[in-house]
Design a protein that fits this description.
Keywords: Lyase. With 238 residues, the chain is an alpha/beta fold. It has 8 helices and 12 strands. It has a single domain, classed as Aldolase class I (TIM Barrel, Alpha-Beta Barrel), CATH 3.20.20.70. β4, α3 and β5 form a beta-alpha-beta unit. The chain is globular and about 45 Å long.
Length: 238
Amino acid sequence: MSNPRIQLNVLAKDVDNAKQIVEAAQGNVYVGLMVKNFASVEAAVATVREFQQADVPVSVGLGAADPTMWKKVVQVAVQTKPAHVNQVFPAAGYTLGALQSVGSGHSIVNAVITPSGTPGQVIITTGPQSESLKETVSCDAAAAMLAEIGVHSVKFYPIGGTAHLDEVAAMVKAAAKHQIKIFEPTGGIDIHTIGQIIEVCAENGAEQIIPHLYTSIIDKNTGLTRIEDVKELARLCK
């Protein structure tokens, strides 16, 4: 598809920052809330709901793809029915089923897949016990396994900015082949590299692209995501 839909996935320090982000991105954004940053499921649920009440589309995340947070993500997601959910590959199907059982069919659920260093081969052992194994499978096999249970999206992390574009291309191509229409490149992306990364995703068949940008657009002094950067990213994504 030559003209994919592009939505950003960014962090916000607070509700006001999040509302400004949504406005700056003209709604084409998910605001990530990482469950790892909360002492309890209840605290995370309360914050997600606060953002949702302000009409902020929330992406419930692990926190640096920490696999030990997978169950906490599910617990928060089923209580809040967010727009978007990040999950490790082994728990993606479980998460999708849990959300569907509470009537949250609108929630996009992704699965974290890791580049292996070899184009065409990826690591799907991204869970708390399996992550130490680092065994590879083909992109084709990884995509087929997600497609057969209905997982919506591949989160490819960490891509190191433009360091693994050949691997990104291979994974996008396999996902598209198996009708997984959403692709989420993550890791080391900034204003200077986002255009090239989006281009590779689009050229290889992604119909919806959700690049994740975190620390590169956060003001180190205030902790706020810079609204001017969000505006520039939104312009680059058109």
